[in-house]
From TrEMBL:
CDD domains: TRAPPC2L. Belongs to the TRAPP small subunits family. Sedlin subfamily. InterPro entries: Longin-like_dom_sf (IPR011012), Sedlin (IPR006722), TRAPPC2L (IPR044760). Pfam families: Sedlin_N (PF04628). Transmembrane segments: none annotated. This is Trafficking protein particle complex subunit 2-like protein. GO terms for cellular component: cytoplasm. PANTHER family: TRAFFICKING PROTEIN PARTICLE COMPLEX SUBUNIT 2. One of its GO terms (biological process) is endoplasmic reticulum to Golgi vesicle-mediated transport.
């Protein structure tokens, strides 16, 4: 059973840069529900005290938003790019595994956005990036 349901990257202006669902057979309604869950998690990050005031050495935010079926974990970069992973509620993944996952995802993001043909703060449409995220997802 796959544990990762969705991976999302949200830009500085809270615009979606990348959202990929991994569950098979999702209806449009279920995909919309995942987008809503990510957006709710975004609100939680914005409400965390001290989040926007100073740079932090601890970028992993931990569990942000538990629902009936899913748990959402978050990570924010010093440049205010936000990473989310939505996993099944039944998953028993350690925080250390999430930290490793987010570091790898951030490295993929940096490599992709460092491309001179990528326009900053726009949707990531690279098929190579998508494939690397698909390969990374089972690592949780």
């Amino acid at each position: 059973m796959k544990k990762v349901v969705c991976v999302a990257i949200i830009g500085k202006g809270n615009n979606p840069l990348f959202i990929q669902e991994f569950a098979t057979g999702l209806t449009d309604e279920n995909k919309l529900k995942l987008h809503y869950i990510v957006h709710c998690s975004l609100d939680i990050i914005e409400d965390k005290p001290g989040n926007t005031k100073k740079l932090s050495s601890e970028l992993y935010l931990g569990l942000l938003y538990p629902t009936e079926d899913y748990k959402v974990y978050g990570y924010i970069t010093n440049s205010k790019i936000k990473f989310f992973v939505v996993v099944l509620d039944t998953s028993d993944i350690k925080d250390s595994d999430f930290k490793i996952f987010f570091k790898r995802l951030q490295n993929l993001y940096i490599n992709t956005t460092s491309n001179p043909f990528y326009k900053p703060n726009t949707k990531i449409e690279s098929t190579k990036f998508l494939q690397e995220v698909i390969n990374l997802a089972p690592s949780l």
